[in-house]
Amino acid sequence: MGQVLKRAVPHAVLLAYVAAVLFPFVFVVFSLLKGSNVDIATNPFGLPKEWHLENYVEAWVKAKIGVYFFNSVYLSFTSALAGALLAAATAFALSG
């Protein structure tokens, strides 16, 4: 029984951590699917009665999320490429 408990405790801690990390994300997704702020205020943690997917389209267009997404992808790619090139150059210099 001691081995089972020894293995279960870290899993329980990790499960609690994952729940704490994912909860805000799920809350935001459910809030975006609700029709109005009244729905969010009256039932903040529940599933929406009517699913409004057009909120995503409206947010994407009005907030220019496409531009920000492209900028994030571009910066991530160039940073990763620069890091890989610098690491390769450093490895070459240190190995000689």
TrEMBL record:
GO terms for cellular component: plasma membrane. Keywords: Cell membrane, Membrane, Transmembrane, Transmembrane helix, Transport. It comes from Bacillus thermozeamaize. Signal peptide: none annotated. Coiled coil: none annotated. The keyword Transport applies. It is a multi-pass membrane protein. It is found in: Cell membrane. Gene3D superfamilies: MetI-like. The lineage of its organism: Bacteria, Bacillati, Bacillota, Bacilli, Bacillales. SUPFAM superfamilies: MetI-like (SSF161098). Its main location: membrane. The chain crosses the membrane at residues 12-33, 73-94. It comes from the Bacteria. This is ABC transmembrane type-1 domain-containing protein. The keyword Lipoprotein does not apply.
